[in-house]
Design a protein that fits this description.
single chain, 650 residues, alpha+beta, six-stranded mixed sheet, 12 helices, globular
């Protein structure tokens, strides 16, 4: 009886904890929309995303299983939550099969910014985890029905690399996804260019060094090669063999299905992977200049320490960037740089920092960062006043990719603002009436539903330019500060555009197309107008690629991303070879929104329904000291008593 009471006490304690810190904490009206295979759980403010998923979820399940010759067999909940403001999703079998999707927007440089329908493609990615991990035979299905969905010896053999190899190929099967994006596949190419291609075991997922996504990049490419070389049926058989422990290890299962070892297959994959024939070290080859030591033929110390540079920005006086490994904002006076002195100073350290943007007069800096001080990660914006040395925290939520525009004596904050899967351009005027930033007055919000605008740059005194991603089409757009669109142009060539900057009468950006490394592109707008323009796209690849280019007086500063380093490098302007590409004009007005709330059949969420599923352990693991100030879990099996433990969650 005591154990039974303890069991119910555990349930009620779990409910209490969930109410305080759960994914749907604070939400009043939680609904469930049921399809054949999914219970879509969502708060009312996520109804748009729930409707999108409700229409397509079962179809996607059919497609994912069919590619391996299987059929759907597992019904599971899908939770859509607005509480986490950094886009991602996950699947887990603990305490039972379920998927969680963070209902927010992708950022300008996000690896997941590679889809025309981000929500559905990310769901496909996570559903592929569920499908592959649940490829169980009759025996293991029975074991799971008794002890819980996570009860499978085969799961212990699946590395993160193997798991993500399946999901990245699945998300990329229709021509989108990371395997079809040259920015995402850059690191695999770069490893081969540098002669540093990792072994299979180097990218299984345990690595804690840059690049953090190695398990995705390399295994996605490897598993795509396996599927093309041996077919999807063999690939499905491989997963079935691993999950059902047809051989003791993954390596033995691989040999059983493919008749060669993983090591041999990896070598064949590496040999077949095509990369441009270019010098591995662009500084040594005379193609680029080290930013910190312009006279050296070797990389400087600052470019060899793995400091993870990101988010380049410049003003009339400063050059600034983020040192990613330490979260430091560093800056350099332009006058010092031009005189040959390159000793950057630290401005601030902000945990979770993602992006910085200086106003053209160097007075203000917009800082976009992620805060994890609460129960969930939140996207936040701060403004730093370089004159008063003070910060102003922006109260508005859902802002990303912030920038500062100055018009006369007025300053404006621009940002990508999201609400569920709808993206908007936020324009707010900064009020300096009390000699400091005392208020943020919202002047305009431009609805760009299902469209992402990013990389905001001052164009003229009362206009700004940005990159617009509409599905998989990229263009450059000019708006005025009242929110009116002035002009939109795109190149008459299918390319991906990232990292926009404007200075010295030209727009610079990073771009890539099929099979190229990220290169530099420009649009000359010397007269300050957006008429009669053309796109100039660089002809040549360079090792490390070109990311976040900034125009300086006689050179271009950029970030080169190498296999285990990010380096600040310079290109001499007169050595860049461009190809001119014609410009296509887009419509002069925004297309009407295609996003609308869908009335889907739903019912009120009942937590008890889901407490019926969980993990059954035939040992007594629960003790009163597992809760309270003396919390601690013993790992000594000899202390476990006869009995049982049931683990579940809402």
């Amino acid at each position: 009886m005591k154990r039974l009471l303890s069991f119910f006490a555990l349930i009620f304690i779990s409910l209490s904890l969930n109410a305080a810190t759960g994914f749907l904490s604070g939400e009043k009206d939680i609904r469930v929309a049921k399809t054949k295979w999914f219970d879509i759980i969502y708060p009312q403010r996520c109804q748009l995303s729930a409707g999108i998923l409700y229409e397509k979820a079962d179809q996607i399940y059919q497609e994912v299983t069919a590619q391996y010759g299987w059929t759907p067999s597992v019904k599971m909940p899908v939770v859509i939550t607005p509480s986490v403001e950094r886009f991602n999703a996950f699947w887990t079998a603990v305490p039972y099969n379920h998927i969680v999707i963070y209902d927010t927007s992708v950022t300008r440089q996000d690896d997941l910014n590679v889809f025309s329908e981000t929500l559905l493609s990310t769901f496909r990615h996570e559903l592929t985890h569920a499908v592959t991990y649940n490829a169980k035979n009759g025996f293991w299905k029975f074991i799971s029905s008794v002890f819980g969905d996570a009860a499978s010896l085969g799961i212990l053999n699946v590395t993160n690399g193997m798991a993500e190899g399946a999901t990245v190929t699945s998300e990329s099967a229709d021509g989108e996804g990371r395997l079809n994006d040259e920015f995402a596949s850059h690191f695999v190419k770069q490893a081969k260019i540098e002669g540093r291609f990792p072994s299979y075991y180097d990218v299984t997922g345990a690595g804690d060094a840059y690049p953090s996504g190695a398990a995705y990049y390399f295994n996605g490419a490897f598993h795509q090669w396996l599927q093309k070389m041996y077919g999807l049926e063999a690939y499905g058989n491989f997963w079935y063999a691993v999950i059902n422990v047809e051989r003791p290890t993954t390596e033995w299962c691989f040999k059983k299905v493919y008749k060669i070892s993983i090591k041999e297959a990896w070598k064949l994959f590496e040999a077949s992977y095509e990369v441009p024939e270019i010098a591995a070290n662009p500084v040594e080859a005379g193609q680029a200049i080290d930013f910190f030591d312009k006279n050296s033929q070797f990389y400087s110390k600052r470019n060899s320490l793995g400091l993870g540079y990101k988010s380049l920005t410049a003003s009339d006086k400063w050059i600034a960037w983020i040192e990613g490994t330490s979260s430091k904002i560093q800056y350099l006076e332009k006058s010092d740089f031009y005189s040959g002195l390159c000793k950057p100073e630290n401005l601030a350290t902000i945990n979770g920092i993602e992006k910085i943007q200086l106003s053209k007069d160097s007075r203000l800096m917009a800082i976009t960062y992620y805060s994890d001080s609460g129960s969930a990660v939140k996207s936040r914006v701060k403004i730093y006043d370089t004159e008063t040395k003070k910060y102003f925290s922006v109260k508005q939520s859902g802002l990303k990719d912030a920038a500062i525009i100055k018009n006369g004596a007025d300053y404006f904050l621009l940002a990508d603002k999201y609400e569920s899967q709808n993206n908007k351009i936020y324009i707010g005027r900064l009020d300096f009436s009390k000699g400091k930033i005392s208020n943020l007055v919202e002047t305009q919000v431009i609805n760009n539903q299902h469209i992402i605008c990013s990389n905001f740059e001052q164009f003229t005194k009362d206009q700004f330019v940005c990159i617009k991603k509409d599905g998989m089409k990229y263009s450059l757009v000019v708006y005025d500060l009242d929110g009116r669109k002035i002009r939109e142009i795109r190149p008459a060539k299918n390319i991906v555009i990232r990292s926009l900057s404007y200075s010295h009468g030209e727009l610079l950006f990073s771009w890539a197309s099929s099979s190229s490394l990220p290169r530099i592109g420009r649009v000359k707008v010397e007269d300050g107008s957006f008429e009669n323009l053309s796109f100039d796209l660089s002809r040549d690849d360079i090792s490390g690629g070109i990311f976040e280019p900034l125009a300086l007086e006689d050179s271009v500063l950029y970030i080169g991303k190498f296999y285990d380093q990010r380096r600040l490098l310079l290109l001499e302007r007169d050595r860049i070879s461009f190809e001119q590409v014609a410009t296509e004009n887009a419509a002069s007005v925004e297309a009407p929104s295609q996003s609308a709330l869908k009335n889907i059949p739903s019912e009120k969420y009942n937590a008890v329904t889901y407490l019926k599923r969980g993990i059954f352990v035939p040992l007594s693991l629960y003790k009163t000291e597992y809760f309270g100030p003396n919390f601690g879990i013993s790992t000594d099996v000899s202390q476990y008593l006869l009995g049982f433990t049931y683990i579940t969650a809402t």
